[in-house]
Amino acid sequence: FLTYSAVGNREDLSDIIYNIDPTETPFVSGVTKTKAAAVFHEWQTQALAAASSTNSVLEGDDATTDTVTPTTRLGNYHQISDKVARVSGTQQAVDHAGRDDELDYQVSLQGKELKRDMETILLANQGRNAGAAGTPRAVGAVLSWIYTNTSKGTNGSDPSSAQLGVSTRTDGSVRAFTEAQLKGVLQSAWNNGGDPDVIMVGGFNKQQFSSFTGRATPMEQATSKKIVATVEVYEGDFGRLKVVPNRFQRATDVLVLQMDMWALGTLPGRNMISIPLAKTGDSDRKQVLSEYTLEARNPKANGGVFDCTSA
Predict the structure, then answer these.
(1) 3-state class of 88 per DSSP?
(2) Bridge partners, residue 286, by sequence
(3) Helix (H) or strand (E) holding 92
(4) Is the dihedral of CA 239, 243, 246, 251 positive or negative?
(5) Residues 151-182: pLDDT tens digits?
(6) What CA–CA distances, in Å, run from 53 to 67, 85, 167, 290, 306?
(7) Count of CB atoms within 10 A of residue 24's CB?
(8) Ramachandran region of residue 303, left (φ > 0), alpha (ψ -120 to 50) or beta?
């Protein structure tokens, strides 16, 4: 009697569920978290007067009042993003492999999906929007704040310095990402007082980065039986920067960021919360929600190499 003819053999289904979809969110996880209390969140930046080489006064002369440099007031809107899980009463009641409660399992998955959505949105070419009755509010993303210290392709342009957080980038013709472009951006950021500490890139340009001068040839370590062909830290004339691959940013962007000059703000009680929704039939629903904004504490500290070949 063979198994092919048998009727009563029990199924063999593992209680482990395998998932390799990436959940790392380097930007959302790496920036400072801050408090926010209104739909429109504001902060201030301060610039010093330009250094003078002619600051010389007469002995005994009356003091002359210097011009005061006022602060600059910036702001961004909160955006609401959500995921909703809905499971039938029957599915809740049956025996499950790999999870005890189907609704809780779906909520945990959608929490991870929501975090990936936020990472994608915050690194997108998106300007802020106040919204209206039929229009969702939109947060001004990273690319709407980086207006200086940039290298871009032909016909590419930066957001307007007068419309930070509102206007967006205009993409130019793509070209290969080079170390010379990066060095120019780093020097410009340093000249403006910035101290970037992270270079964030997509997969293609992470490999391009690993071929830069000083790391162009893979190194074989015979004792450990491994080949090293990657760059995790870039040490240049203006400091050490961590090189971080990011699956959720635009592949054509190489972001040069000073991470403490960015902050993620959320309204009180609105940070990745799970909300049971009203029961309207033979099913249960939960909403996973976040209401968040991006604080660009001083945009001049950051930069980027844009319009890079990505394939």
Answers:
(1) strand
(2) 85, 276
(3) helix 89-93
(4) positive
(5) 999 999 999 999 999 999 999 999 999 999 99
(6) 17, 64, 36, 51, 35
(7) 14
(8) beta
